[in-house]
Design a protein that fits this description.
Radius of gyration: 18 Å
Largest sheet: 7 strands, parallel
Helix content: 40-55%
Length: about 260
């Protein structure tokens, strides 16, 4: 299927590894020029080289910086000729007990997982509407649909973003101009984030990371973790010309782990 994205420009946040990298790779494979961001320059440049090799016909621009800061956002936006596709993504805040989180912890979570995506949407959405095409995908978490008690910072910040987008996506001046805003809610995917979480659990339990990974994998109906490549493929479709009638939605990618019908 031709996704109709040839020659578009995308800004993909936190794209040096994991799900962000998977999304960037899928878009590049569809002929999309990308600006990728991440804080670690070495990993980011390595990913940029991989993407260029994947499709030499597209432009890949790497901008190292902290997208959660005004300076980081400005640097990324400055090198993107236009943003037709925006993939908002940022690592989640640490787990813990809400009794231990002070105001600074909450502000950091909100900055990274709610206010930064909103700032980038604000910077790009009107241009999308003027051009008559725009796709915004927020990578959030399955915890938005089924909150996890130790991930209170993430539950709160990402749910705040979800509520904001629910109203914005349905504004006729955006939806009628072929601008869609959706969220992808990943469950357990084989990423560094999952492994670091398992490492923390292993340290507390005295068990090995490998043992916990196997146990977690077998709890999923598919008996496996998702891959960044398959996540990216879903993202690319949601960004495609075929997905213009999908907006304001939260699409759960969790291998069937959520037990509800809706």
């Amino acid at each position: 299927m031709d996704l109709g994205l040839q020659g578009k420009w995308a800004l993909v946040c936190a794209a040096s590894k994991g799900l962000g990298k998977g999304c960037a790779a899928a878009l590049v494979g569809e002929g999309v020029n990308v600006v990728i961001t991440a804080r670690g320059d070495a990993a980011l440049q390595a990913t940029a080289a991989e993407l260029r090799a994947h499709n030499p016909d597209v432009q890949v621009i790497a901008v190292a910086g902290d997208i959660t800061t005004a300076e980081g956002r400005a640097a990324a936006l400055a090198v993107c000729p236009q943003v037709d596709i925006l993939i908002n993504n940022a690592g989640g805040p640490p787990p813990g007990d809400f009794r231990d989180w002070d105001r600074e912890a909450w502000i950091a979570a909100l900055d990274a997982n709610m206010l930064t995506p909103i700032a980038l949407i604000k910077a790009t959405v009107d241009g999308m509407a003027e051009r008559g095409f725009g796709r915004i995908v927020n990578i959030t978490s399955a915890a938005v649909k089924a909150p996890i008690d130790i991930l209170g910072l993430s539950n709160g910040a990402r749910s705040g973003l979800t509520g904001f987008v629910a109203g914005l996506a349905r504004q006729p001046r955006l939806a009628s101009r072929n601008v869609t805003i959706n969220a992808l809610l990943p469950g357990p995917f084989d990423t560094d984030r999952l492994r670091s979480t398992m490492a923390g659990a292993a340290a507390k339990s005295g068990r090995t990371v490998d043992a916990l990974m196997v146990e977690r994998r077998l709890l999923n109906p598919t008996r496996r973790f998702g891959s960044a490549a398959e996540f990216g493929a879903v993202c690319a479709f949601v960004c495609s010309t075929h997905a213009g009638y999908i907006t304001g939605q939260n699409l759960l990618l969790d291998g069937g782990a959520f037990p509800g019908a809706f």
